[in-house]
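Changelog excerpt

This revision adds worked examples to the README so contributors can see how folded entries look when concatenated. The first example is reproduced verbatim below.
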Amino acid sequence: MHVGKAVFGLSPSAPKAAFIERLGPPTAELPLRQGRRGLLYGNSLLLAFEGERLREVRCWKLEQFTEDLFLGWLQQVEPKADMQGFVVDDRLRLGMPREQVSALLVGLEGDGDERSDVRIKNGQQLWLGYGPAPDYHLGDDPGQQVLVSISLGFAAD
């Protein structure tokens, strides 16, 4: 995926049917807020559409979803794709240490806090969420944060 340019090899303005043709049938289609619909692929990738227009792509590490969040049902959904293959701009991927991610964000407009970063790249909002490495089986140091969620928004034309 390239911010502002391509999502799974398609233009962000491609119709929903083109994404279904490219990725195959979704695991589920979900109603979202503000009348949007989400195509859930496996248990860790969601494409959010407003009508036929892609508005957001979200991916996440699954370990954080529990019954307490009322999303425990996702644990029962078979993974559909290897999310390690979900890469933004050929560099940014789930599981990366926050220090490496921060180096890639230098020069981009935006801000962050202890759990997330929000940046603007090519006119698109990029939201990155972090969690402790041990919670995601990505290390033993509870002080090391790793990238566990990526959301990329697409502005209305």
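The second example, added in the same revision:
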Amino acid sequence: METKQRIIWPLGAFLVGAGLIGAIYFGLVSWAESPEHALELFWEERIFIVPIILGFGIQSALYIILKKRLFVPVTSVGPSGALTGAGGATSTVAMVACCAHHVTDVLPILGLTAAAAFLAEYQTLFMGVGLGTTLVGILVMLLILFRERKKAFAHAEMAAEAA
């Protein structure tokens, strides 16, 4: 694969992933309150929100790198679907944990005041779990990438020795 594609695919996935989770965050808070409130809340929670958004973008880029085998030199050796899917599931959990506390803005409208109070009480915990899950997802995907790269190089070395 061309060097240009090795850069464009992950960069595009990063931008789409980060943009999507950022849009979900701002859309949910804007819908529940107002766009001004969304910006205020973002500024107040930026210590959690920015790393989660960036982390989700990084996971998206790593997923594309694994899926398309952009940095694994042998096409016959690559990540299994189950291992790649584990990173995707981790990203989903992080997104839900990140945005779950914003449901508290809407729940009273639906008559679920007790649930809203519970989620509001543990807002920081939800965001901490979201950030932690994002970091674990990145680590898992990097470990998969390095393991597959190592296997690919070992496979290529054995093939060269046999020839």
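Reviewer comment on example two: Helices lie at 3-32, 35-44, 46-67, 81-99, 113-121, 123-162. The radius of gyration is 20 Å.
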